[in-house]
Specification:
It contains 19 helices and 25 strands. Helix 7 crosses helix 8, helix 7 packs antiparallel against helix 10 and helix 9 crosses helix 10. It is about 35% helix and about 20% strand. It is globular. It has about 550 residues and is of the alpha/beta class.
């Protein structure tokens, strides 16, 4: 069986100029990065301002399992299938982080015959956006520490600095560090730490900014710490926003690539959904909406994380109303949620499947009943799935008024997603009553509890004393009307990754609350979630190599 990278490398890609032309992008807005990828100048939006918006279709999934769900694969295959049935379609995806590429997850460009290419470039350095974000983040950190070193006229308390440095790599060694050692000329000794780049507020700002002026304004609002008088200090006070925006000028431009079937794809921004807001950039989504009749986009991890943040944060800020939602599931993953061991997932087990189905059904209920959006369940079919298992999933979903479509895009490309595409088109024509899971005029505590109880189905929420102290301070500073960005394990509806399925009667533990004032949301850390992941016992990096001709192997 061919690997994903072998399939990608054997595909004859079209020149990016041909993809841009087919997408209706004037060549004056195309900035090629080699033959097969390009930046799209954001000034294209001024020319397209009177063009009607295309419909947005969100692809999300059940709670992830080691068995895999194939969400990106389904997203790409659905776009190719939409193209096959004659719909002008674009894909809008996030950029992969080097953390999971070299860690446990591998690449994030789809799989099988439903991929975006050039997959090696996309999964590695791509067009340098991640490096630019990291550089802008760390410039602010350097200017902050330099301000303290040069006299500290703002009165910043080194013990109250909240801004961390970042690196796009899983490196647990950098979570908590002490720096500024070695004497007076080397800075002020203090406790510090690193986040992974995709969890940086600069990443969130890039993904939520509507244009370069908005980007600069958001950067200026970043809170980096507090004074001895407990007043917030911003990047604007450090006069850092101009230089940061200069570093991000090109990174703000969406990246154009193609699928294996030459469907145009915009890949831009890459925040994780468990520790950040999990959506590609507003710039890319809005650009795609002006270039296509249908935009197929995805949000990270399960619908309780990525879809919740896409709907409650991104859609609210950008004024986007999705037309339909696809919820990806596999029979294998549902049996895992039903307690079946990974080694036994290929065996028919209707009892385990029925026990695991509540996870899928709760995600479906959230989309249709909490958010008021039409949805379809896409079963990413595996050869070991039996007709009895598929019928059980279909029966339970129909009880909620939701159709099920089999997706075979991994093995057949767009052809394997035509049934799903036809159902998506049908749903997009249906009226919907899109609404958010909470209102902004609620208190911070009320919004946290609304997400916990309406989306996660927690019975209780405990905000630990240090987090409650931060909450009160943020309310005093005027941040009460911000939306909430929950940081939570992706493996469970709860904050305990071992609670599979759809747990009831549990208590959400909130241990830390902080503000991302530039991004425009409150970050709520729950359970033992970390903003800097670590590598597994056997990192994926051990399998990656490059030969004397520059051909990469083992990437995915």
């Amino acid at each position: 069986m061919k690997t994903d990278i072998q399939i990608a490398q054997e595909t004859e890609a079209l020149r990016i100029s041909e993809i841009a032309k087919a997408a209706g992008i004037d060549e004056k807005y195309v900035e090629p990065y080699g033959y097969y990828k390009a930046k799209i100048d954001y000034n294209i939006m001024a020319d397209k301002k009177d063009t009607p918006d295309g419909k947005v279709v969100l692809v999300t999934a059940i709670s992830p399992t080691p068995a895999g769900e194939g969400k990106t694969t389904t997203t790409v295959g659905l776009a190719d299938a939409m193209k096959k049935i004659g719909k002008k379609t674009m894909v809008a995806l996030r950029e992969p982080s080097l953390g999971p590429v070299f860690g446990i997850k591998g690449g994030a460009a789809g799989g099988g015959y439903a991929q975006v290419i050039p997959m090696e470039d996309i999964n590695l350095h791509f067009t340098g956006d991640m490096h630019a974000i990291g550089a802008a983040n760390n410039l602010l950190a350097a200017m902050l520490d330099n301000h303290i070193q040069q006299g500290n006229s703002l009165g910043i308390d080194p013990r109250r600095i909240t801004w961390k440095r970042c690196v796009d790599m899983n490196d647990r060694q950098l979570r908590f560090i002490t720096d500024g050692l070695g004497g007076r000329v080397n800075g002020t000794p203090r406790e510090d730490g690193f986040d992974i780049t995709v969890a940086s507020e600069v990443m969130a700002i890039l993904c939520l900014a509507s244009d370069i002026d908005d980007l600069k304004e958001r950067l200026s609002r970043i809170v980096v710490g507090y004074t001895y008088n407990e007043e917030p200090v911003t990047a604007g006070q450090l006069k850092a926003q101009g230089a940061m925006a200069a570093l991000l000028k090109d990174a703000l431009k969406p990246n154009l690539v193609q699928t294996l079937e030459h469907t145009p794809a915009l890949i831009h921004g890459g925040p994780f959904a468990n520790i950040a807001h999990g959506c590609n950039s507003v710039m890319a989504t809005r650009t795609a909406m002006k270039l296509a009749d249908y935009v197929i986009t995805e949000a990270g991890f399960g619908a309780d994380l990525g879809a919740e943040k896409f709907l409650d944060i991104k859609c609210r800020m950008a004024g986007i109303k999705p037309s339909a939602v696809v919820i990806v599931a596999t029979v294998r993953a549902l049996k895992h949620h039903g307690g079946l061991a990974k080694a036994d997932l290929q065996n028919e087990d209707l009892k385990a499947l029925e026990k695991g189905l509540p996870n899928l059904l709760q995600h479906v209920e959230n989309i249709t009943q909490v958010y008021g959006l039409p949805a379809v369940v896409a079963i990413n079919r595996f050869p070991t799935d039996t007709e009895a298992e598929l019928s059980l999933v279909e029966k339970k979903c129909r009880e909620l008024g939701v159709n099920v479509a089999l997706s075979e895009v991994w093995g057949r490309g767009g052809e394997g997603g035509i049934a799903l595409a036809e159902e998506v088109v049908r749903l997009c024509e249906q009226p919907s009553d899109f609404r958010y899971s909470y209102e902004l005029d609620m208190t911070i505590e009320e919004k946290i509890k609304a997400i916990a109880k309406r989306i996660y189905r927690a019975k209780h929420v405990i905000i630990q004393p240090p987090a409650m102290k931060s909450l009160k301070k943020l309310e005093e500073l005027g941040f009460s009307d911000f939306p909430i960005c929950m940081a939570k394990t992706q493996y469970s509806f709860s904050d305990d990754q071992t609670l599979l399925g759809a747990p009831k009667g549990w208590t959400l533990q909130v241990r830390e609350i902080r503000v991302s004032a530039g991004a425009g949301f409150i970050v709520v850390l729950t359970g033992n979630i970390m903003t800097m992941p670590g590598l597994p016992k056997k990192p994926a990096a051990e399998n990656i190599d490059v030969d004397s001709k520059g051909v990469i192997t083992g990437l995915f």
